[in-house]
Structures are given as C-alpha cells and as structure tokens.
Write a structure and sequence with these properties.
- The complex is a heterodimer.
- Chain A folds into 2 domains: 54 residues; 53 residues, no CATH class.
- Chain A is built from 4 helices and no strands.
- Chain B has a single domain, classed as Four Helix Bundle (Hemerythrin (Met), subunit A) (Up-down Bundle), CATH 1.20.120.
- Chain B is elongated, with a radius of gyration of 19 Å.
- Classes of the chains: A mainly alpha, B mainly alpha.
- The interface between A and B is large, with 59 and 64 residues.
C-alpha cells in the first residue's frame, strides 16, 4: 500500500531534458575565456538546475508550508556561517592583524603556478 | 509484528505529512548544514587563495560533466519510480529504483577512475588546500551516493512485491538531494578555475 498521492506528476522527461540542456550550457560556458561568462554559466545555471530538481522532482512547492521553511532556515544557517567566518578567511590582513602564513602561501603558490 | 502490521512511521501523520517522509525531510535538513558548512568553508578558502586555480585546472571537467549527466538521469528514474509507486505499480517502481542504483554505481566507477588518475599524477589529499577539499567534498558525497544506492536496492526488493511503496518516495527525496549537492560541487570543483 501507499499513502495517497500528494503531488501532480508533471512531464518528468521534459524537465530532465531541460536539466541536460542546462548542463551543456554550463560546460560550454566553462570553455569561455571571459570570467563573467564562466561564473554565470557555472553558478547561475547550477542555481536554476537545483531549483528545477527541488520543485519538480522533490515537489518542495506542494509540501506542507513548513517543509520549505525548514529548508530555508538551514540554508540561512549556512549563510550566517559564511558571513561570520569569511571575512577572516578571505582577507589576509586587517586593521590590527596580519595572517603572514596565508600571505606567504598565496605568494609561493602564485609564483609556482603556470602563467595563464 | 505480524506480516500485515505497518510500522508506525508509515501510518502516523500527526503533522499532515506521513512520519516516514517527515523524517526524510529532517535528514535532508541536517544534510544541508553538513554539506553547506563544507561548501561554505571551501568557497571562502577558494576566494582567499587564488593560487588554488592552478590545482583546480587539473580536475577533469568532462568526467565531472558525465557524472552530472548520470546523476540527473538517475534522478529522473527515481521520480518515475515514485510515479509508478503512486500508481501502485510496485514491479515497475522496483525496476526504476534498480536503474537509479545503477546510476549510482556508474557515478562511483567514474569517480574511482578519476581519483586513480589524480593520485597517479601525485595529487593526493595532502597535496594542498584545494586537494584536501576536493577529496573531502567528493568523498563525502560519494559515500552518500553509495548509501543511497544500497538503500534503494533494499526498497526495490520490497517494492517488487508491492510492499512498503511509500518508501519509494522517501528514498527518491534523498537521492534528489544528493543530486542537488553534486549540481553545486560540479561547478565549484571542475569549472571555477
């Protein structure tokens, strides 16, 4: 037995075809030499793909309202973590501090990296 | 428990959502924090270390893209299995779940070849910051794929006999989440250079 269906089943093959088309866009975008194009093709397309999977395959939008709330709260926790820690990690110096080890690692790594 | 008795997780629905599905959503919620925390940590380090771009250029974009295709296709099979379960067609749901699990096996096989190549070229988990995150993120995700595939096969064996069909949707939800995690790992590890 199963619980009664709580979802309307759309044309899943069509959604899959859209997802594959978006994958092709992101791979083709990665071949570009323009940084902006690469970023949009990679992360913009990833967000759209994730939304399509969550909406159509996971049926998040037809779940009880607190399920998307729960998921959004968890994502908010991750954003808070990022916002709280990133300034110290992404920057290697500040008003009264300097992360010399990180600076040196970047400097050494950039010297060793092949010229693009 | 008699053969016809149902576990309480499959019959109780206090919140308006069957408890089994409710638990699945809670698992996914906790996984968001686990993967989200790791991804956030990777992202902030990646932005603070431009030299990691040189390491990232060694990852195989085509292998990553192929694996994305495999996971998207396996997600299609999982949702079609859910549709079949809703129509009370257990044998079809079981076949589709086994195809989904096969997708997981193909994904892990490609990952295995990829890692073998990386390791042969000298890029191991201790080769630098990028490689530490690469193996940790992809490894943790791979473990989730493996666990999902095993559970999928167990659910399929019951579904084939038209038993416990409500589980088909639950394992499908988990699988789609694993797919979404990879959707973000692919650009982070393979495209951003």
């Amino acid at each position: 037995m199963t619980t009664e269906s709580h979802v309307h089943h759309p044309n899943y093959v069509k959604i899959w075809a859209i997802l594959v088309a978006l994958l092709i866009v992101s791979v083709l975008g990665s071949l570009s030499s323009i940084r902006g194009v690469i970023l949009v093709a990679a992360f913009g397309v990833a967000i759209v793909k994730a939304y399509l999977v969550a909406k159509n395959f996971m049926h998040v939008t037809v779940e009880k309202r607190w399920v998307p709330y729960l998921l959004v709260v968890m994502i908010a926790f991750v954003v808070i973590l990022f916002a709280g820690v990133a300034p110290d990690v992404m920057r290697h110096d500040g008003l009264h501090w300097s992360n010399d080890a990180a600076k040196q690692t970047v400097e050494t790594g950039m010297k060793a990296a092949p010229k693009q | 428990m008699s053969a016809t008795a149902k576990p309480i997780a499959n019959t109780r629905s206090v919140t308006g959502i069957p408890t089994a599905r409710l638990i699945t959503w809670w698992v996914i919620a906790s996984e968001i924090v686990i993967f989200g925390g790791l991804l956030a940590a990777y992202l902030m380090h990646r932005l603070g270390h431009p030299e990691w771009a040189a390491s990232a250029s060694h990852t195989n974009t085509w292998a990553g893209a192929f694996n994305t295709f495999v996971l998207l296709t396996s997600s299609l099979c999982a949702v079609l299995a859910h549709k079949a379960a809703d129509a009370l067609d257990g044998p079809r749901a079981a076949r589709l779940l086994r195809l989904t699990a096969l997708g997981g096996v193909i994904f892990l096989t490609v990952k295995g070849f990829e890692w073998t190549t990386d390791i042969r070229e000298g890029f191991v988990i201790s080769s630098g910051g990028f490689w530490s995150y690469y193996y940790t993120l992809a490894g943790l995700h791979g473990l989730h794929v493996l666990a999902g595939a095993v559970i999928m096969l167990i659910v399929a064996s019951d579904a084939a006999k038209n038993r416990e069909l409500q589980r088909v949707e639950c394992i499908g939800l988990y699988w789609h989440f694993v797919d979404i995690v990879w959707i973000f790992l692919f650009p982070l590890l393979y495209i951003a250079r």
